[in-house]
Write a structure and sequence with these properties.
The protein has 610 residues and is an all-alpha fold. It has helices at 3-24, 30-35, 42-53, 56-69, 74-98, 103-110, 114-147, 151-200, 206-211, 223-233, 246-260, 264-267, 276-294, 297-312, 322-329, 405-413, 417-455, 461-484, 491-515, 521-544, 561-578, 585-593; strands at 213-214, 221-222, 315-316, 333-335, 343-344, 357-358, 386-387, 398-400. The strands form four sheets. The protein has a two-stranded antiparallel ribbon. The protein has a two-stranded antiparallel sheet with strand order 3-5. The longest helix has 50 residues, at 151-200. It starts with a helix and ends in a 17-residue tail after the last helix.
């Protein structure tokens, strides 16, 4: 049986399972569509939340970032996991007791304003659309490699599948589908890591292998030391040394952390359980399930980097492994023979932008034109990539996308075909699970918070669900377009923008709304608008308007600017609040009440004021 056939079997079976679950769990009411009826068990919700959380950026891109960046990639590990702790401690129990199923719903009622609700809807749309772009891109990358098709076509296939079970099933269908998707992802991520760890380190547990002995070399040295030595031999910095500035590292980590605590598609997951006690249990399960992936990602990144260097560096192109040719054919890897010796030289990650390589008459290697005649052009040594002489100072001859490392790793390690097929199914499950959750938040923000609460209050339940499904279709179309033409070819970077937007808009507004009884609507609205406007403007300037690194504010890149936007939100909100009246008494009493456990007596508002 061929590898392609096995891939189709594994993925086909997983798709069949997802669609059957979605159809059997079809939402019949707005409560089931938005919160799955509120009766999901903590264990099942923990698994579903973990699947919702572990997006294409986590599953596909994060390990690739670790492989390329080494220590600097810890910003994603620290930011995303630390943020989940903030979310479960500072946000979810109080929001759950408040009883509002969406973030705009909470903001609209807490700040007693339709305008506040409308601003929150706009923020949710920006956040979710940016996030879902990365997921659609991830689906395109996987389908491109799986079927040998273009990334745009892969994105369109993924969008159709997501709509089939998310737009129809709502939260009820998504929840139980994500339970199955988590199981697929967990096995798909850990089994290849175990195989590779045993082959490269002799340890069954990849984490022990990473810090243990590298048994394939003499004299025996720890694996990380082996990796550092390889990096030094090739002429660049140690794998465990940081290259990013301290302030930028801090800001990106903080933006990811605070953005996590403000993500609407994760917050809404905790409304699917029965009560606040179940919320806390569900959060504990979620952290346990997330740890399985996050503790494995660094090992996969490190193993894949060593595999890539040992299999390709200084290898004759004619003797390159067959998997390299396969990835080259789909545009995921490329080689240019700069020195004319017919060998693949790898000295570190190449730039993916124009200047290092020129592919197909100037097109970036990230977006190969599969239907262009130039795609068939072959270099003097048989390579598909043609050199750009604009950067002769860089001797590197190998290009590969960060997002391909997880999929390439089992090929490089020579793992069994069924392991590779399982990994492909896991990659698709990761992208689809998060895309489904984001799609639900987008659709409910439009149907419930915009249409029902602001524009057309007399909507029936059936009409509201129909609006949600129509919004899902439109949102997927827009997301597919930006999945094909993303703001960054690097999935994790695109997703980081979404976290920055959440950090600069929702996190401060939710935190103040929970812990400050006196904050009024004027302060909250002003803070949200100032924070997200600054963050969007900064990202657009550097990603679309040609902003140069010399223009960076304090050296902070767009991935970390959400932290500055968050500080602006806080500052503007409290400044405006100082010059306007306090929130009404009934709002202050309502906020104070959510801090008091059931049966504990009356709350004192001043005990919770900040």
């Amino acid at each position: 049986m061929s590898q392609d056939t096995l891939n189709f079997i594994f993925i086909g079976l997983s798709f069949a399972l997802y669609i059957v679950i979605a159809v059997r769990s079809k939402a019949g009411s707005t409560k089931e569509y938005y919160t799955a009826g509120g009766g999901v068990s903590p264990l099942a919700n923990g698994m579903a939340t973990a699947a919702d959380w572990m997006s294409a950026a986590t599953f596909i891109s994060m390990a690739g970032t670790v492989a390329i960046s080494g220590y600097d990639a810890s910003r994603f590990l620290m930011g995303w996991t630390g943020g989940f702790v903030l979310l479960t401690v500072l946000m979810v129990p109080y929001l759950r007791k408040f009883g509002k199923a969406t973030v705009p719903d909470f903001i609209g009622d807490r700040y007693y304003s339709k305008l506040a609700r409308g601003v929150a809807v706009v923020c949710a749309i920006f956040i979710c659309m940016t996030y879902i772009m990365g997921q659609m891109r991830g689906v395109g990358v996987v389908f491109s490699q799986l079927f040998g098709i273009s990334i745009p076509f892969g994105v369109m296939i993924g969008a159709a599948i997501v709509f089939a079970y998310a737009g129809v099933g709502g939260m009820k269908g998504i929840t139980y589908t994500q339970v199955a998707q988590y199981c697929v992802m967990a096995f798909a991520y850990t089994i290849p890591a175990v195989y590779i760890a045993m082959a490269m380190t002799g340890h069954v547990f990849p984490q022990f292998g990473l810090i243990g002995d590298y048994t394939a070399s003499e004299p025996i040295v720890p694996f990380l030391q082996k990796l550092n030595n390889i990096n030094l031999e090739l002429g660049f910095q140690e794998y465990t040394s940081g290259k990013m500035s301290t302030i930028n590292m801090f800001c990106i980590t903080a933006a990811l952390m605070c953005g996590t605590a403000g993500l609407p598609h994760v917050i809404v997951r905790f409304f699917t359980v029965k009560n606040v006690r179940s919320v806390r249990r569900s959060a504990a399960w979620t952290l346990s399930f997330i740890a399985v992936i996050y503790l494995t990602a660094p090992t996969i990144g490190a193993f894949s980097r060593v595999n890539l260097i040992e299999k390709l560096h200084d290898t004759s192109y004619t003797e390159a492994p067959s998997w390299f040719t396969e990835f080259e054919a789909t545009g995921q890897m490329a080689w240019v023979d700069k020195n004319g010796d017919g060998r693949i030289q790898y000295y570190g990650p190449a730039k993916s932008d124009a200047g290092t390589f020129s592919v197909f008459q100037g097109k970036s290697p990230v977006y190969p034109a599969y239907d262009a005649p130039e795609y068939q052009r072959i270099g003097t040594q048989g390579e598909r990539l043609l050199a750009s002489k604009s950067d002769d100072s860089n001797p590197n001859e190998l290009w590969f996308g960060n997002d391909i490392m997880v999929m390439a790793n089992p090929h490089m390690a020579g793992l069994p075909m069924w392991v590779i097929a399982l990994l492909m199914a896991g990659c698709i499950a990761a992208a689809l699970s998060t895309a489904a959750g984001l799609l639900l938040v987008l659709s409910t923000s439009i149907s419930h918070d915009l249409m029902k609460k602001i524009i057309k209050p007399d909507l029936s339940d059936r009409e509201e669900v129909n609006y949600a499904r129509a919004a899902s279709f439109v949102a997927l179309g827009v997301a597919a377009y930006f999945g094909i033409n993303p703001p960054s070819a690097f999935i994790a970077k695109t997703v980081a923008f979404a976290f920055g937007l959440a950090a600069s808009s929702f996190f401060p507004t939710l935190l103040i709304g929970i812990f400050s009884t006196k904050m009024n609507k004027q302060g909250a609205i002003s803070g949200m608008l100032a924070g997200i406007s600054f963050t969007i403007g900064y990202i657009v300037y550097f990603q679309f308007l040609g902003g140069h690194d010399d223009h960076l504010l304090f050296g902070i890149t767009p991935e970390g600017i959400g932290f500055v936007g968050m500080l602006i939100n806080f500052a503007v909100a409290f400044t405006v609040k100082a010059f306007t009246a306090d929130a009404p008494d009934y709002v202050q009493e309502m906020v104070a009440e959510i801090h008091i456990p059931s049966g504990a007596g009356e709350a004192k508002k001043q005990d919770f004021e900040i």
